[in-house]
TrEMBL record:
It is found in: Cell membrane. It comes from Streptomyces longwoodensis. Residues 19-147, 158-296 form the EamA domain. The keyword ATP-binding does not apply. GO terms for cellular component: plasma membrane. Belongs to the EamA transporter family. Signal peptide: none annotated. This is Permease. Residues 303-332 are annotated as: Disordered.
Amino acid sequence: MSAPAARPGRAVVSGRLADLPVLLVAVVWGSSYLAAQGVTTTDTVLAVLVLRFAVALPVLVVAGRRGLRALSAVQLRGAALLGLVLAGIFLLETYGLVRTSATNAGLIISLTMVFTPLAESRVRRTRLPGSFLAAAGLSVAGVVLLTQGAGFTAPSGGDLLMLGAAVARTVHVLAMARMESVRGADALSLTTVQLGSAVVVFALLVAVPGTGASPWAAASAFDGGDWLGLVHLAVFCTLFAFFVQMWAVRRTSPSRVSLLLGTEPVWAAAVGIALAGDRPGWPGYVGAVLVLAGTAWGRSVADRERRAPVPPAQTTRTPRRQTPDTSGTPGR
C-alpha cells in the first residue's frame, strides 16, 4: 500500500521542480532589461545586438543541426521572414531600453499579453468579452500612471519605443501562429533561423556609416563588467531561457510555462527598483500594480475563452476562440 501512495507525491515534487527552472527564466528575463542598459549606449545598440547573438547563434546551430537540415526551402523562407520581425522587436526594445528605466521597460512590454488577444480578435472578426476589454483598459491606465510617476508629462521616447516593441511582439506571435510556411518546423530550428536572420539585419545596419560603433570597437571598449553583462544576455537570457522552455513543456504544459513566464514584469520592476534605484513615485507604483493586475486578468479571461467548448453548430469551422501561446517566444 505504501508504494502506490508515494507515486503521486513524487509526481507533485517533479512538477514543482520543473516549475523552478521556468521561474528562474522569468527572473533572468526580468534582469535582462537592466543588464542590457549596463552594456548598451545609444551609440552601441547595433554592435551589442550583433555581439550578443553572435555568441548564442553557433550554439543553437550545433544543437539543432539535424532539424535545420530537415527544413524545407519554404520553411526557411518563412522563418527568415519571421526573423525580420524579430529584428524589429530587438531594435525597438534595445533603443527603448537606453531611453527609459528598466522598470518601465519590463512593465510596458508585458502589454503584449493583452495586445495579442485583441489583435487576434480583429483578425478573426470575433468579439472579445467585456471583461477582457476592461482588463485591457486597466493595463493601459496602469502604463499611463507608470510612465508619469514623476509628474504628468509627455511619455519619454524610450517608453514609446517599448510600446512599439510590445506591438511588434504581438505581430510576431500572430505571424508564428498563422503562417502556413512554418507549420511543422521544430521550435529549435525555427528560432535558430529567426535569430540568424535578425543578426544579418543588425550586421547590415551597423555597416552603414553613422549608425554607431562597430562590434569590434564596442568590444574593445568593454571592461570586465560589460563582458559579464553580455555573457548574461547571450548565455542566460537567450540560450538558457530557450532550452529551459523546451525542457519544461515536455514535463508540464505550455499554459503552466506561459503562466510562470508571465511573472517577468514583476522581476523587471523588482530588479529596477532594487539595483538601479528606479523610483517611479506613488503614481508609478499604482500604475505597476494596475499593469500586472490587468495583464493577469486579461490573460485569465483569454485562457477561459480558449478553453471554452465550441458549440455544435460551429464544429465544421475554424474555432472562434484560439489565442496564440507566447511561451515559445525566443529569449530576450
